[in-house]
Amino acid sequence: MKKNIFSALLAISALLFLTACERPPIDAKQNGFRGTAMVDVQNPRIVAEKVKLNTIPPSTGAISGEGEKASKVYKNVKVLGDLSTAQFSTFMVTMTSWVAPKEGCAYCHNLENLADDSKYTKVVSRSMIEMTQNINANWKSHVQETGVTCYTCHRGNNIPQNVWFKSPPQKGGNMLGNLNEQNSASPSAAYSSLPNETYSKFLLASNPARIQGKDGLPNGNKHSIQATEEVYGIMMHFSQSLGVNCTYCHNTQAFSDWTHSTPQRAQSWHAIQMVKDVNNTFMVPLTSTFPKHRLGETGDVAKANCATCHQGVNKPLYGKSMLSDYPYLTKPATEVNAKTVAMK
Known about the structure:
By secondary structure, the protein is an all-alpha fold. Among the domains are: about 25-55, no CATH class; about 160-310, Orthogonal Bundle (Photosynthetic Reaction Center, subunit C, domain 2), CATH 1.10.468.10. Helices cover about 35% and strands about 0% of the residues. It is built from twelve helices and two strands. The chain has helices at about 1-15, 45-55, 70-75, 85-100, 120-140, 140-145, 150-155, 200, 225-240, 265-285, 305-310, 340-344; strands at about 25-30, 40. The protein has a two-stranded antiparallel sheet. Strand 1 (about 25-30) and strand 2 form a beta hairpin. The longest helix is centred in the C-terminal third of the chain and has 21 residues, at about 265-285. The chain starts with a helix and ends with a helix.
């Protein structure tokens, strides 16, 4: 009897101990010179689940732009008014399937008066369309010609599954010392003990994520341990969001050296600037538009991070573009909302 109990306890202990481990086989692909430890490691079972999540939905195909314009037929069309009525009505149905498949048109519209702007969701959706056009026009340095659509982030959800709010301040001080917003297992630092308010620092404010110096102390690197932990935290977010490890962007022999880094590092730098633009130009200004129940604990609006679009893969939807069917979601840079151009 005692032996059986001991065996059961041993099995439970082993299960708990190995919970964070991944069972083989694991795929490892060398993406650098031999001896540099530049290897990409993937779990084929996790990859299979990601394939389901990153499948492009059915499309009606490109719709003709011939015919009367939507702004001439419908009332209060403030964006996409230059589309034909066929394009406009088809896109409204398509966008509903991307963002509110259960609620339907009523999610944004007063069904008794479609021109009515009383629903906050309608006001927000206009801004999100402008945001999408801005990304596709002004951030080709990151999205290239692939671009993004509403589906890239929403995937059939009212709110994208990966958004973030500011964390409420930790209670500390006195004998507990400076908690530095860490040791609370937050998803913002990949559930590590690292600081969990890194999104605000690197994806909202203008702070470069660089802490590695080229010279030794005392004249070299002056960054604190806390600053180092903050950078490590945001790097773990990047890694988890894209489903890659450090070698996707960095050469493990010289992490800080751009000349030894992969091309993805430069593209990632542009991505960080793009996310800051999205959050500061489009999301934060909508704070007063959202009702209180849609705001975070500190009263801030939901904001984007890398996982919002990528959702676990290095290229959203595995790099498949949907813009050929929805070309009006990109505009020449001169036609994009003036507030964005002014900010840049």
